[in-house]
Amino acid sequence: MDVKADVAVVGAGAAGLSLALRLARPPSGAGPLDTVLLAAPPGPARAAPRTWCFWEPDDGPYDEALAASWQRLRVRGADGTSVTTAIAPLRYKMLRSDAFEALVGRRVAASGRVSRVEAAVDQVAPVPGGGALVHARRADGGSVAVRARWVFDSRPLSRLPPARTTLLQHFRGWFVRTGRPVFDSSVVELMDFRTPQPAHGLSFGYVLPVGPHEALVEYTEFSRRVLSRAGYDHVLRDYAERVLGLAGYEVTACEQGVIPMTDADFVRQTAPGVFRIGASSGATRPSTGYTFSAVQRQTSAVAAALHTGRYPLPPRPHSTRARLMDAVLLHALDTGRVDGPAFFTRLFRRVPAPRLLRFLDGRTSLPEDLAIGAHLPVAAMLASALALPLAPRRSLPAA
After folding, report:
1. Rounded to whole angstroms, how far apart are CA atoms 110 and 133?
2. Sign of the dihedral defined by the CA atoms of residues 47, 49, 53, 58, in that order
3. Is the pLDDT of residue 226 over 90?
4. Residue 307 contacts by C-beta under 8 Å, 6 or more apart in sequence?
5. How many CB atoms lie within 10 A of CB 348?
6. What is the C-alpha to C-alpha distance for residues 197 and 221, in angstroms, rounded to an integer?
7. 1 pLDDT band (50/70/90 cuts)?
8. Torsion on CA atoms 111, 114, 118, 120, rounded to nearest 10
9. Which residues are CB-contacts of 81 (< 8 A; sequence separation ≥ 6)?
10. For residue 293, which of 385, 371, 361 has the smallest C-alpha distance?
11. Where are the beta strands (DSSP E) in the chain?
């Protein structure tokens, strides 16, 4: 099977689907672009269903597919003291990947401008004269070759770029159902530090209630090494039963993942006309692991460039200032100069939540950043800033 297209989008995760959707809906006056979306067929090459969370105002473009949304967040310190804060005009939104894929599928099919091909991509090879040839395999063993002027690859990297600091945000979550109403569905437990803290890094519980009887309950850890499945289930059971006081609950589904939090400099172009988008281009915020909002900004810029005939190099998902601040914080957490639970609890206690969320999203001004910086452990952060340039860069396998 041979296909020619203006644009090939490799991968049907958050980045690939978001770009395909934007290319399916060109602005008034823009010419249509023949686009092929290559999505891995069911099997080992396809990512398991997962949950994306992000914050934005009401009336977002994907609101009809949300599992839930909230206007209040809670952070609990290791001693159990808590701060609950309203985030209006923002909402914290929970989007399941299967619901997002279905939504994009409906909208793309209605446009008639994007063709979806279910095939696992083996190779993206530049061709003389510009563009690239994408080689892929269907589930039945048949081959697919897509030649496109522009290729946007969102597949995970096999190895991370060299970095001074890389921590892994690794987690396992249970979707639980209880017989009696136990969850406050009006507030998210964003960070609950009443979990056993690892010797290196930090850990917290995370609760997304979708109703009084149902919630996603997760254990999350920032550290250098992942746990075994039995290890995750042990700490999850402890958190659910000892900390949250759940009893007689049913686990209806699970999700598990690893997100590299790194100060690496990601490559955004690998060959003429071949680009990386999404997490493989650095969309994950190094200090938090959040990715979805940066993906939206990046794919919006790429689609706008394509529709207006400009060179579509994906922009850096985060500003230079944000990446520098994140590099210092990661180094401080990795070296133990900063107590992670105390650091995040203090930020949420002292900084108004809407401003802090904009800060975490890289949308604050320099004066706002400096004001937030006044609430940080200055000596520890300064020591990490001075030590950071001397730290060697290492390349690690991707999680």
Report:
1. 27
2. positive
3. yes
4. 23, 26, 27, 30, 31, 33
5. 22
6. 9
7. low
8. -150
9. 345
10. 361
11. 2-10, 35-39, 51-57, 68-70, 72-76, 82-86, 90-96, 114-118, 120-126, 132-137, 143-153, 166-178, 188-192, 202-209, 214-223, 249-262, 269-271, 274-276
- What is the reported pLDDT for 207? 98
Mean pLDDT of 2-10: 94
From the list 106, 18, 100, the residue with the least C-alpha distance to 52 is: 100
Distance, C-alpha 12 to centroid of its chain: 14
Instruction: Give CA separation, 221 vs 6, 87, 182, 392, in Å.
Output: 42, 25, 25, 24
Q: What is the CA radius of gyration of the chain?
A: 22
Amino acid identity for residue 260 in this structure: P
Q: Residue 119 pLDDT more than 70?
A: yes
Checking if the pLDDT of 200 tops 90, the result is no
Q: What is the identity of the amino acid at 392?
A: P
The domain ranges of the chain are: 2-49+95-158+264-307
| Residue in the structure block whose two tokens are 């023949």 | 34
Q: CA 204 to CA 202: how far, in whole Å?
A: 7
CATH of domain 2-49+95-158+264-307: 3.50.50.60
Dihedral sign (CA 120, 110, 91, 216) = negative
Q: Which amino acid is at 207?
A: V
Q: Give the residue carrying structure tokens 């952070």.
A: 75
Please tell me the predicted confidence (pLDDT) of residue 130. Answer: 83
The model's pTM: 0.94
| Contact between 202 and 171 (Cβ < 8 Å) | no
**3-state DSSP assignment of residue 384:** helix
Give the pLDDT band of residue 291 (cuts 50, 70, 90): very high
The whole-number average pLDDT for the span 81-88 is 95
pLDDT of amino acid 142? 92
pLDDT higher than 80, residue 195: yes
- Stretch 76-105: mean pLDDT: 96
